[in-house]
Amino acid sequence: MNPTHATPASSTPAVDVVPIRRVLVSVFDKTGLGRLAAGLKAAGVRVVSTGGTSAALVSHGLEVEDVSAVTSFPEILDGRVKTLHPRIFAGVLARHDRADDRAVLADHGIDTFDAVIVNLYAFEAAVSRTDCTAGEAIELIDVGGPSLVRAAAKNHAFTSVVTSPEQYDEFLAALGSGGTTLAQRRRLAARAFERTAAYDTAIAAWMARHADLPAAASQSATGATEATDTGDEPPLPSRLSLDLERRLPLRYGENPHQSAALFAPLGTHLGLAGLKQLSGKELSYNNLLDLDGATRLAGLLATPAAVVVKHTNPCGAAAGATAAEALATAMAADPTSAFGSIVAVNRTFDRGCAEVLLAPGLFVEVIAAPAFEPEAVELLTTRPTWKGSVRLVEVPPGDPWEATSGLELRSIAGAILAQRPDNACDDPATWRVVTKAAPAPALTQSLNFAFTIVRRLTSNAIAVCQGTNLVGAGLGQTSRVDAVRIALEKAGDRVRGSVLASDAFFPFPDSIDLIARAGIAAVIQPGGSKRDAEVIAAADAAGIPMVLTSRRHFRH
Predict the structure, then answer these.
(1) How would you class 448 by CB atoms within 10 Å of its CB: exposed for 0-12, middle for 13-18, buried for 19 or more?
(2) How far apart are CA 68 and CA 271, in angstroms?
(3) CA-CA-CA-CA torsion for 494, 500, 501, 505, nearest 10 degrees?
(4) Which residues does the chain have with pLDDT short of 50?
(5) Which of 85, 154, 269, 281 is catalytic?
(6) What pLDDT does residue 69 have?
(7) What is the H or E stretch that residue 356 is in?
(8) Known catalytic residue: 311?
(9) pTM value?
(10) With contact defined as beta carbons under 8 Å apart, do 329 and 470 qualify?
(11) 154 is catalytic
């Protein structure tokens, strides 16, 4: 190997400012091209361009040299090959302070490019469409564009790289002041590498789906399966690449001394990544956490339902004939906690829903729904005393986990935990009555509702439900019997005749003693404790029907 290839001598340019005399322009997005053409023409810059870009620049009155004239080779394969040529890439990559590089250029009659202005095929936009075919997606995998961008960014000591119409004004201003500075070229190079990384990530994610990789077990070099097979779900991928963009700057995080922002995978507009705020103050970090809890629980309920959340946990939840009916019931479950809460419904938020919240003494921070009726928006933003404060947020339906290969992600110190979301409906047909007494048929709907609600409470979790209404919750406790005690106390007089759900097994029969004294009509829980027999015997002794689901729903 020639030792000069390894020397770092070109890491510092001879001069800070590089005049722009010759540029290569090849853009898919023609936005702002007229402005760019005018600036280049005014500065007397020589322009080399390709196909459609060349024609567009000429239409704006700019004289252009075609790439084919530089390479002495036509564009071929329907434009798949046009810039991939030594006369192009040597002109981009040559190090101006290296005598050997200059000699090579002279020997072959190659001119340098002082700037490369390239944006890439719109792959991300295409694959986000439901009607995008595999053939169309593959044709929009840009090859020459990313290669040019990377080459120019690598050689930013001498070459400017512009990858977005948003950068044209900065570039043209530098052009008018004598050239780009090293600091400008570094910033442009950094943005260029961000762009190619995001582009490759989008292609890799689509290709993995196209090849069914997320559903296939990844094999290590030794042939061992790296992902754990849970039996009813596909194994996890061996590699997960994310490109996150900042969507929403936040005033602060959980506390005022913490900076924060909402980031979302590039191109994702489902779930909270696609929220649309219709009115009210800006959303906070804690608002978004509560919104996540509220909308995810509301989405688990098939019938019209409303959820009231405080500090990420439901303090009210109900299903009803209409969203307004469910909302009224949910708000009444724990009025003290509901003050200053986050509310979500799983149907259009209509006038009836708005009138529920117009009752005197009520105040909510955020209202979320798939859509809002204009009349409801007008009422909420003009009538109540808190009209200027409440945030109305539309959250679009759809699978929010698509952009993360179907995985729910959670950060821990220095790493990311990934799991399949716990959002599949439970199947009551698999449940077993394990006590001598069976629940009354009238309690079936309530048991199903309670076991749905408890899965979105923080473990250890207990939900007490009267019909399809959450009346008491015990959550986040280190002892399950404490969670039972709190839930029963919250339910108060409504506890008698209600059902109780637990997110995991009862480790001891002591909880059953409390449940029996409170007058609970039936219990539903996963089971799986080594003392299940003792717990079931306690339920039999108290005459309480018990159902085992064999499926745990921890939420930490």
Answers:
(1) buried
(2) 47
(3) 140
(4) 1-10, 12-13, 214-229
(5) 154
(6) 74
(7) helix 351-357
(8) yes
(9) 0.70
(10) no
(11) yes
